[in-house]
Amino acid sequence: MWFYLKPYVSNSFFDQNRAYAGLGFNLKPTLRFEAAYINQTLLQRSGKALEQNHTMMFSLFGTVTLFKR
Fold first, then answer.
1. Which residues contact 51 (CB under 8 A, 6 or more apart)?
2. For the chain, the helix, strand and coil percentages under 3-state DSSP, each to the nearest 5
3. CB 44 within 8 A of CB 28
4. What angle (nearest 5°) sits at the alpha carbon of residue 57, between those of residues 53 and 62?
């Protein structure tokens, strides 16, 4: 969880907040799959409404051996 203190003066202490949760699975010794969810809450510029952003991330990571020892 991150908290950001704004460099400008505003009526609100709160600017934005994020929550993150993720899982990873090894499919093979050289292949990994990860799925994650991010929820971002922002205070809109008007200072009167909160905005919610929901994001799903899916990643596939692979490793290869370029040089044999």
1. 41, 42, 43, 44
2. 0, 60, 40
3. no
4. 160
Q: Read off the amino acid at residue 36.
A: A
Place of tokens 């909160």: 50
11 CB-near residues (< 8 Å, 6+ apart):
47
**Residue 23 structure tokens:** 């899982």
Please write the tens of the pLDDT for every residue from 7-18. Answer: 555 566 666 788
Q: Which residue has better confidence, 44 or 31?
A: 31
Question: Strand order of the sheet with strand 31-43?
Answer: 16-28, 31-43, 50-62
